[in-house]
Fold this protein.
Amino acid sequence: MILGDIVAAKVIQLQMEKQHISLDGMKYMLKNMPSYRRYSFKEALKRKGGLSIIAEVKKASPSKGVIAAEFNALETAKAYQAGGADAISVLTERRFFEGSDQYLSMIKSQVAVPVLRKDFIIDVWQIYQSRLLGADAILLISAILDKTLLKKFCIIADMLGMDCLVEVHNEMELDAALEAGASIIGINNRNLNDFSVDLSTTQRLMKGIPSDKIVVAESGIRDADDVRYMASLGVDALLIGETLMRSDCPGNTIKQFKKAAGGLMEKFG
Ligand SMILES: O=C(O)c1ccccc1NCC(=O)[C@H](O)[C@H](O)COP(=O)(O)O
């Protein structure tokens, strides 16, 4: 029950972090600090004749352990940008992914594409914190938020000028995301409870998503064939972590993937 473990650890972490800075303290800082340059995550994902790629900075994961032993978050993000990534996802969760809030701030200050904060958001405090760290967008996981919270979190993020990628893995979670008014839906091909990956999850759930939504296929994309498969389903964007982290030249891999998707779109329109 890994998702439950991650959330339980997050509750404890938040109890400690909130002792250092209150929600009001964060609101004060947001009002008084100079704003960073913002980039629209949503605009970056809209199809411009090809699939958009969200490239993920991911040192480790619960399913794979350490993915990148020689890890440099900033250099990885710069390589992603150089390869044409449309947005960069930064895992900030510490215990299970070896992420860091500092990676997000550092990357935000050095790249000129939208930055997504990838964490397990369960509290309003984290939404304000994401904004302070420099996020252009945040991940909201439907499986760990009830409908009311999901809607409330989307509204707060919007108020703070951030987009939400609302992640779903089944029909029930998709209904909740749509009810919450999500405009960017992430279909996670990985079951977060048993780690199994099935790319046909995207194919199945795509059918229930209205055409005005932006769809991101997440997890398990390994090669150009997977990219072509996703492009054939009509998704707008791909979220890719492990494959890029393991690549000797992630920039080239992004270029190859974009070419693979572009070729298919030219062929089928
Ligand atoms: O990646 C995991 O093992 C994992 C386990 C439990 C909860 C979340 C998990 N991953 C988060 C993600 O959604 C992925 O990092 C992201 O979609 C990229 O996936 P991949 O390309 O397969 O690295």
About this structure: The chain has twelve helices and ten strands. The domain at 2-34+41-268 is CATH 3.20.20.70 (TIM Barrel). Strands lie at 52-57, 60-61, 65-66, 87-91, 115-118, 137-141, 163-168, 184-188, 214-218, 237-240. The chain has a mean pLDDT of 94.
